[in-house]
């Protein structure tokens, strides 16, 4: 009898798993045959988010040279390295270009087909274009994966959930606003993958409140402007007349920081330095839940500071007042914030060269503007300053911080669920939009089609309308009949609309304090309420407590997702190599 493996999710994570299975099978798989079933209603390779059937106006969020699906020698893993082209090498693009998502979908399809071709002849792959509804079966026996529209389940020796972003039920506040909208004939668009949202109810010329200033907002902005026939000429936007007027705000009140627009040269910071495997092991070994703010954040801040100042001192020494060796020794010894601030003030004369994570994270804290128009001028100046800095290599300490962020994330995935603060901070600082998108924001603002509301945005519903305000502009508020929640749904088990995750949770799969599926950091096995790994069920991706910083890995950065994929693939192959007769005799 042939072995059966079911992978639910055929997007980048499922494709990456297939690549690692192909790479490790010659060493580890000694079975008589293996059938791999990929379950996903969307095409293999791109899956839902990166499918080719979406608007060509939507871009990737990374330079083409920073996107790869292939391992290199910087990845710490037991399996073999199988190098392959980055997106820009495969597509023949300029490495600094931002490819559209259709092209990325074609790249992912090619990676999928290559992985299939590299499987040993006794391993087959079949795609089932359906949704998986639930998984059943005993811990020590074959699993059953029930599919939408199919009477009989797939039988599986092992199941891997490689799910991407999933739809979620509204939280309490969103549900109240949605109910109010339905009662009063308003428009409320919930958190969603923007390419899947029906934007037709947002009428030309009408005011639309938008809550969220990250990447989902960027997609919304594009689809409601260029997507409706407008175009840019230089720094000017020429409207089609079909655009609504977007009033956008968020907790920070500013867009994510621009992607850095230059490459790395010279010495890299030796990372990790203050947050490495030893620190993670110590934190993981202590009893009780780790307090991120008290126990982890100080290590994160010191690591990011080290990456920043290493670059400043080694690449821009003329702007420092101490030799690097002296600064490094004193920096390492500093164990209180006041002492560290004093050291930096003495060693780095220009405040613009000092790393202030609090100011970066909350740039509008305490800022107050006399009028809405004054704030428009102020935020345009902020965006222009951010663009200039992030494209100026004389500020390459910022790129040092970026590398520090990648290093920190690679360590923190070993720790499990660290809460929403870290993931949000990383995305805001390291995973912002391409520079051209921010320039488009400026053009739309000047054209009057994009209006900034400010930080700590509040939304209320009364008198038949939605009303938005922010303390950034005291006394100002705007009313509208449409509200868009411009962010992806939270990937929590409890609020997910996906019946597969809900059923797993109901059966006893453990949930982290932040609502994510708990998994074994060693190989991705799903944990139960007492911490036991399920012998036949694995999970990887954003719905787990080992989520990684994005769908794709930057080459030569160690790739936490690659490490996870390899560990899971090897555990799966080792299990499936056990003779079936021997297993059934247990």
Automatic annotation (TrEMBL):
Organism: Streptomyces alanosinicus
Entry protein name: Adenylate cyclase
Pfam families, per database record: NAD_binding_9
Domain FAD-dependent urate hydroxylase HpyO/Asp monooxygenase CreE-like FAD/NAD(P)-binding positions: 6-165
Domain of life: Bacteria
Residue ranges of the region described as Disordered: 510-559
Transmembrane segments: none
